[in-house]
Design brief:
four-stranded antiparallel sheet, 44% strand, extended
């Protein structure tokens, strides 16, 4: 079995670099020491957790030398096991999009020149670029990659190349430039002492000159300035560029992008729309008759269902419009208290209600799990307290559901997001 040098410890790598006459003495000097292989970070990025707001919680995404992508929890800073991905090679750069709690995509370039898409629980190879990548920028429907052959390439989400630019020199880095107040997306490419700013269509918009070769750039907010660019040069100096509020980004030169294929292709949706319009024009009478036929059938089925509902007296409950739930979590953990308030906002009293708690027994234990609600008079509120015990070893958080029931009928459901638990120091 063959193993790469990245899977060896630092001492093993140093041993292989020594000459044959020095290896025996090195082994005797370090034979009692424990070998440890450090997991080195090769790249990192950030991913919004639940909301696309400026101050919202953000997860840190790490790419490691062990060919892994790791997402850290924003509060406990521990790896999230369900989001851990294993790659075929070492990641070089990461660009994220989406929200972690809903749906997200991790666009990653590897050392072997492959471009892969990582989502929750699986990794999908997109294409083989043939050249090592320098950086990647993921937009809504486009992926822009800078390669070591001094080219800037744009692909769609299916892996088809849209355009290709040849840069005048070797590219050092690439960065997304997003102007939210103008709803404008651009790409900054550093080459030597110049930063070229391109549109998503490959048009040159502006050039920024520096006194030294640019090593890396970052675009974002600096103080009260929403649109600022930090530039780090090869000499170690830091420069700050602030965008003018009156800046006008219009193409300076004709586009240098080279279209792939000379024939203009009609988009599939446009072709489908034209075909559908022609079909409706030729068969308008038959389509109208068919529509009327299915409409009458739908009305007949609706009338039959209404008769069945009236016969069985299946009247829908309106209690969820007259009862209001409120919940509050008390404590730091591992023992919490949930205070649930049920408020009657109607003019009628309610009887026979109950509060049922539903949870994952891998995370919590709840006692009592069911609370009987006495007579709930109009415009009154009753509060109940239940005890929640966190049973996980690392204090990870989950949800607890509060269900209002009446007999065997579920009337209202509320979901409580529990905070991470502070673990006890002494047993």
């Amino acid at each position: 079995m063959e193993h790469g040098i990245s899977s060896l410890s630092l001492k093993s790598q140093h041993l292989l670099s020594l000459g044959s006459h020095e290896r025996l003495s090195f082994i005797n000097a370090n034979k009692t020491m424990t070998l440890q292989r450090k997991n080195l970070i090769t790249c990192m990025s950030t991913l919004k957790k639940a909301r696309q707001e400026e101050m919202a919680l953000t997860c840190l995404v790490l790419g490691t030398e062990n060919k892994e992508l790791i997402v850290l929890h924003p509060e406990t800073f521990t790896p999230i096991d369900e989001a851990k991905l294993t790659l075929t090679d070492v990641p070089v750069s990461i660009s994220t999009s989406g929200l972690f709690d809903i749906d997200y995509t991790l666009t990653t370039t590897l050392r072997n020149g492959h471009l892969v898409l990582g989502r929750r629980g699986w990794v999908s190879p997109l294409l083989n670029m043939g050249k090592p990548a320098i950086g990647v920028v993921c937009l809504d429907t486009q992926i822009i990659v800078a390669l070591m052959d001094s080219t800037l390439n744009c692909f769609n989400d299916k892996g088809r190349r849209l355009w290709r630019l040849e840069i005048s020199g070797p590219i050092s880095c690439v960065e997304r430039i997003q102007l939210k107040n103008k709803n404008l997306d651009m790409v900054g490419v550093a080459c030597g002492q110049t930063i070229y700013i391109y549109s998503v269509a490959g048009e040159l918009l502006d050039q920024v000159k520096c006194i030294e070769n640019v090593s890396t750039i970052y675009f974002g907010q600096y103080g009260r300035e929403m649109n600022s660019m930090a530039v780090i040069t090869a000499g170690g100096s830091i420069h700050l560029k602030i965008l003018k509020r009156t800046a006008d980004f219009t193409p300076q030169l004709p586009s240098e992008a080279k279209s792939i294929g000379g024939k203009i292709q009609i988009p599939k949706k446009t072709k489908l729309f034209v075909d559908q319009t022609m079909r409706e024009r030729e068969n308008s009478i038959a389509m109208h008759r068919t529509f009327q036929k299915y409409l009458f059938h739908q009305k007949l089925d609706t009338a039959r269902q209404l008769v069945q509902v009236l016969a069985k007296k299946q009247i829908p409950s309106t209690l969820n419009d007259t009862v209001k739930l409120s919940a509050q979590v008390l404590g730091l953990g591992p023992t919490f208290k949930i205070q649930v308030g049920i408020y009657n906002i109607s003019s009628d009293a309610h009887t026979g209600l109950g509060l049922f708690f539903h949870w994952d027994d891998k995370f919590y234990q709840v006692h009592p799990a069911y609370i009987h609600v006495p007579l709930l008079t109009p415009s009154s509120e009753l509060k109940f307290v239940t005890k929640v015990e966190c049973v996980t070893a690392n204090g990870m958080a989950d949800v607890v559901k509060v269900i209002v029931v009446k007999g065997t009928q579920t009337l209202l459901v509320a979901i409580i997001n529990m905070p991470p638990s502070e673990m006890t120091l002494f047993e």
